[in-house]
Amino acid sequence: MTRRALILSSVVAVACGPGQPMSTTETGGTAGNSTSSGATVGDASTQGGETAASTTSGGGTESAPTTSGESTESATTDVFDPEPNLEYCPLGGLATSDISGTTPFGAFTAAYARFGWVGCAGSADVPEIVLMGDEQALVDAIAQEYSYYDGGARPFPVLRIPLAFMGGAWHETGWTGETTQFAWFYSTPEFMEDGGHSVTITITMSTSVADTIDPGEIPRLVGSVIIEGDGWDLAGDFDAAYCGALTWGHECA
């Protein structure tokens, strides 16, 4: 199969990978130390629709996360395949989340939100929201050696929410709407929640891959999350700035 055809079926399955201890081959860095509050991201979207598909994870088949939202791009677009800006990660003064509550692992408060990309072959395809207790966890992760193929910078403890393909909208346009995805909680490099947990996430403003290649301001994903049931009672809003160091890739096939 082609790389593009694999993304929808891969994004849920590969989300488990970076939770393991990683070997490192490259040294990442940061560019920018801005305290600017945000950026303008794309035009208003013009198409709506529902997407749902089946994905294979392990030995069985399960329903992929469902989405309801808007985009201006076709699901079959293959002409835009950029590499993300892995060096860009503004820090400082951007505590942009008020998500708090309880998890099966105890209380969790995320006052700090960022997002990176998930892709393969050095590219970026879908965003992953990364919710942390404070900035120091991200600073510490960036200070370590990391690489795109070793999972990017991995802060702990953290709640990570990869967003599904949304019909290809993340490439040249953004996506807004409500969707059901899976969240994974990582407390240490050795521990990750088994199987993840369903999360309702609403995106009210988003950015695209194109807007994160050479950003003039700070690209963002803005929205809210609700996670309930099975020991979870977590909710709140986020305004997640782009941090390329969080971007990670997996094998295309």
From TrEMBL:
<protein>
    <recommendedName>
        <fullName>Lipoprotein</fullName>
    </recommendedName>
</protein>
<feature type="compositionally biased region" description="Low complexity">
    <location>
        <begin position="23"/>
        <end position="77"/>
    </location>
</feature>
<feature type="region of interest" description="Disordered">
    <location>
        <begin position="16"/>
        <end position="83"/>
    </location>
</feature>
<keyword id="KW-0732">Signal</keyword>
<feature type="signal peptide">
    <location>
        <begin position="1"/>
        <end position="15"/>
    </location>
</feature>
